[in-house]
Amino acid sequence: MSRAQTDTPGQRLGALMHQLRGVLGPAPEDVVGIDLPRHQLRALFIVAKRGPLAVGRLAEATRASLASTSSLADRLVRSGYLEREPDPRDRRRVLLTATPLGVAVVQQLEERFHQRFERLVGAMTAEGRAALEAGLNDMIRAADGLGLRGDQPHHPSHGDHA
User: Following DSSP, what letter does each residue of 51-95 receive, concatenated?
Assistant: First the structure.
């Protein structure tokens, strides 16, 4: 019996998603001039997309300790990608926000991701695109049902009527 026959569906799909992450993740040319390790880039994306965040919320989002997240935030502030500002509702708290430089980096990487994704999807067959869309919508519904999605609501596509 081959290994593929003994793997679970989750293992097989997880392996495919891992391969896809390598295709869709930032390409070397995407990060030229951006001197940020992956974990810092991920934190920058989270802050830029979710708006002002306390360090504790960023630690939750990255699943890292408060101490390591605070240190990471300090590095991003020193590099000019994030800034700290007082919480207008509670002056004792400090919030992290993306600077214009941080926002520009995120926008640049997102634009390149979308270009690469459009090329990839455009190279698929119509049947493959429809099957992928149906499967991804089903996976999102399953995640919703299991409570695994947190604060990211499902926005169904035009073809999603379930």
Answer: -SEEHHHHHHHHT--HHHHHHHHHHHHHTTSEEEEEETTEEEEEE
Rounded to whole angstroms, how far apart are CA atoms 52 and 30?
A: 26
pLDDT of the residue at 153: 42
Give residue 4's pLDDT.
53
Tokens of 142: 């399953």
Q: Tokens 């500002």 correspond to what residue?
A: 85
Exposure string of 59-82, with b = 16+ CB inside 10 Å and e = fewer, is bebeebeeeebeebbeebeeeebb
Q: What is the pLDDT of residue 18?
A: 85
d(CA 114, CA 38): 19
The answer to whether residue 116 scores a pLDDT higher than 50 is yes
Domains in the chain with CATH codes:
34-146 (1.10.10.10)
Q: Report CA-CA distances (Å) from 137 to 90, 107, 117, 129, 146.
A: 39, 26, 17, 12, 14
Q: pTM of the prediction?
A: 0.72
